[in-house]
Automatic annotation (TrEMBL):
The lineage of its organism: Eukaryota, Sar, Alveolata, Dinophyceae, Suessiales. This is HTH cro/C1-type domain-containing protein. Keywords: DNA-binding, Transcription, Transcription regulation. The keyword Nucleotide-binding does not apply. The keyword Secreted does not apply. Belongs to the short-chain fatty acyl-CoA assimilation regulator (ScfR) family. Pfam families: HTH_3, Peptidase_M78, ScfRs. InterPro entries: Cro/C1-type_HTH, HTH_RamB, IrrE_HExxH, Lambda_DNA-bd_dom_sf, ScfR_C, TransReg_Diox_bact_type. It comes from Effrenium voratum. GO terms for molecular function: DNA binding; DNA-binding transcription factor activity. It comes from the Eukaryota.
């Protein structure tokens, strides 16, 4: 302790102000001059061992508290400044250390304020979901990140872009790919634009799936990707070159508010165009109807992944030539949702998709297997749900990449058109009806009583706090 200089000015000042002492009074208690105490409080002089012992004796404070105080609040400040709204505001941890050490009370207050902000955001989101479920549009103004704006805009509209479909068909005729779309795309890029495609190892592209080098005119693709995803990345690059006008027109129709949002939407449009190239509309629809939307058949027939085939099913809504109106969502093992789309817009108001009983969560226990379930919402609406895990980028031995699962659904009325409808069990003594799993849109807006899977209390009902009775749910309500 003798070799370590301890600067604890803000903590000394806090001890003094809590006891409503002046600097003169405290200096007299400690046996030092008021000017010396002033220097200590401004961190211009360190605490000596004798002064530490005097503080502990006179004011009954813990010496360890005087040697550190920012350690507890520092991780919370780091969490706060990791929020997307604040990310990038601080260049490093040094300023956070200075804040936590120099103004511990202010730091604690900021953390408390941030937690209240996060809680209010979650409550507003829950309230918005509840109002949307009741068919009422919410116009609560809030700051949204560009990615959130794009996601919300795409989820609310049909996942079908006519201009991109037409351009994709024209491009396919030009390429005449036969059974080798990858070869046709790489040949077109080389012949028409002088761009060569090369798959690079992990050490050369540790952080990117695709990167175009304008100086060498080369398109690099990561070896981490499956052959299907490599083909999609090449198709995206080709679409961005060939279909630029159509992509720009579709983005303009979305009426996004910022250039950053338009840039993100451009990526989504390129992804859509790539799927249209890999699975041409008319042929894909014909095969899908004939094979009753069997995803395993579709992915083998078109040389695509399960996720790509499922995604394409939500796009089959051309006027006069539409398929079953599917919707889809993709989540990770922690339950985070990061992609949702629907043939008529994602049915947030009617379906939600956040119920822990949905088979998409169970899919992680049986990787690669398709789970089929008929589910019923609290208002009686029924859906046919298909769930399966997806194969993501390949990681090295020491890495743990995020694994995801996809949920594909449609209204139960279409079950006879889909191969998966045949596995649904019937209701005894009720011909033509199937057994359904009762689910809800999300725990916070679901009022199903006695649900064993409930994770949160509903915001619409008070909790039933009865000392004499307890239910199976930890969030019983009245």
């Amino acid at each position: 302790m003798a070799d370590q200089k301890i600067f604890a000015g803000p903590r000394i000042r806090r001890i003094r102000t809590q006891r409503e002492l002046t600097q003169t009074a405290m200096a007299a208690d400690l046996g030092i001059s008021p000017s010396y105490l002033n220097l200590i409080e401004r961190n211009q002089r360190p605490l000596t061992v004798q002064l530490l012992l005097k503080l502990a004796s006179v004011y009954k404070v813990d010496v360890n508290e005087l040697q550190g105080g920012g350690e507890q609040v520092l991780p919370q400040l780091k969490e706060m400044f990791a929020d997307p709204l604040l990310a990038g505001e601080l260049p490093g941890d040094q300023e956070l250390i200075e804040i936590s050490e120099g103004a511990p009370n202010v730091s604690a207050a900021l953390v408390k304020l941030y937690r209240a902000y996060r809680e209010s955001q979650e409550r507003l989101s829950d309230l918005s979901d509840m109002l949307a479920r009741e068919g009422r549009e919410t116009r609560i103004a809030s700051a949204r990140l560009p990615a959130d704006e794009v996601r919300d805009t795409l989820e609310k509209r049909p996942n079908h872009f006519a201009r991109l479909e037409e351009e994709a068909e024209s491009f396919t005729k030009l390429l005449s790919p036969g059974d080798d779309l990858m070869g046709a795309l790489t040949g077109w890029l080389r012949a028409d634009h002088g761009i060569s495609v090369k798959v690079l190892p992990v050490e050369a592209m540790p952080d990117w799936k695709r990167r175009y080098d304008r100086h060498s005119n080369r398109l690099f693709i990561s070896e981490r990707l499956s052959p299907f995803d490599q083909k999609r990345e090449v198709a995206m690059e080709a679409a961005l070159i060939r279909m630029q006008v159509a992509i720009t027109a579709e983005i303009e129709d979305l009426k996004l508010s910022s250039n950053e949002a338009r840039r993100i939407a451009r990526f989504e449009m390129a992804r859509y165009a790539a799927h249209a190239l890999m699975m041409p509309y008319e042929r894909f629809l014909q095969v899908a109807v004939r094979e009753k939307y069997d995803l395993d058949v579709l992915k083998s027939r078109f040389g695509v992944s399960f996720e790509q085939a499922a995604n394409r099913l939500t796009m089959l809504q051309r006027r006069g030539a539409a398929g079953v109106p599917f919707f889809m969502a993709e989540i990770d093992q922690a339950g985070n949702r990061f992609r949702r789309a629907g043939a008529r817009g994602y049915p947030q108001a009617r379906f939600g998709g956040s119920c822990p009983k949905l088979p998409v969560h169970e899919a992680f226990n049986t990787p690669g297997h398709i789970l089929v379930e008929a589910v019923q919402m609290p208002d009686g609406v029924e859906f046919l749900i298909i769930a399966r895990t997806l194969e993501g980028p390949q990681g090295a031995f020491h890495e743990r990449p995020r694994r995801t699962a996809i949920l594909l659904g449609c209204e139960i009325a279409h079950r006879n058109d889909i191969v998966y409808g045949a596995v649904l069990r019937g209701v005894p003594d009720a011909p033509g009806r199937v057994q359904t799993l009762p689910v809800g849109p999300a725990c916070r807006v679901c009022e199903r009583a006695g649900c064993l899977a409930r994770a949160e209390p509903p915001i619409t009902r008070p909790l039933g706090l009865d000392d004499m009775t307890t239910g199976f749910s930890v969030f019983d309500f009245v």
